[in-house]
Fold:
Amino acid sequence: MSKQERATRTRNALILSAAQLFERSGYTQASLDEISSGARVSRGALHFHFENKAALADAVEQAAAHTLRTTAHTPPPDPTSAVQALMDLSHRMVHLLHHDIVVRAGFRLNCDTGPRTPLDLRQEWHTCVHQLTTRAADEHALAPGISPDSLAATIVATTTGLEVLSRANRSWLSPSSLTSFWQLLL
Structure:
């Protein structure tokens, strides 16, 4: 294995370890010793890749944002209506929040009182959803009086609300929770 491959593996292991700890304990309670121990690397290796805990938290958020963007911008296999695309995307998002600890930790970090970065995962999620609600309006698929803005806000509030609720009880991120929301909405 080359030095570059080892460095990439170490960096990814640190991001995963940090995500696990940030998700479980929050930014403030996480320690660099616990993060390096969880990644099975020395503190020196941690500091080679990340200047401090804030830089590591930023890397977790950036990784979460990358996954969110990739998920949101992956077109469905078959052409579909905007409303169906919204339902599918919201289910993919809830699946990510349930199964991807880096995404979950990234969203939690965006809420924690730790260092603020210019990255806003909820705003990025809103932008993805709003593009589809606008497309739904263009397809005349929205009920009279429903604006793309209000529909996007409702979907984002619901999905991010499920994420917050899931911190105490992961079952909030079940597909049935989101399916119930869509049944009520439609």
Summary: The chain has one domain: 3-185. The chain has a mean pLDDT of 92. The chain has nine helices and no strands. Residues 3-185 form a domain with the Tetracycline Repressor; domain 2 fold (CATH 1.10.357.10).
